[in-house]
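Entry 14. Structure prediction run on the chain below.
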Amino acid sequence: MAAPLRVLFCIGINQNFFDLPTDGITTGHVWQSFVAMTDSLKALPGVDFIGDIDDDAHMVGPSDGWPWTCYILADVDTQETVKAACNLLRTTPVGGGDVKLWRFAKIEARIGRALTVRDDVALPATGGER
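Output returned:
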């Protein structure tokens, strides 16, 4: 079995969120959908949730790139699963109508590996050397 992909999901809230309420949608509706989306992401087969961080106390206003509003760190089995996780913003409804979560937020996935010494790197012998 291949090593899992270490994935940092970077999520930014856009101006549409800060313009609420509108069209019968409130910030509470968006939060409710956001929690549902993150629960769905964590429950995807092949996703091993590690942790998350939300910086809405120090990040004020919309974030269209780094630094992002919040992050989710997970080990994921395949790029297809990463794609399915990102797609949740397109499919998660907000407020019970046709509006989806991606109207209020964006997501980007950074894919790497756990920070360990690669197999192709030879470490020097340990001992009394200086």
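The CA atoms of residues 116 and 122 lie 13 Å apart.
Filed with the rest of this week's runs.
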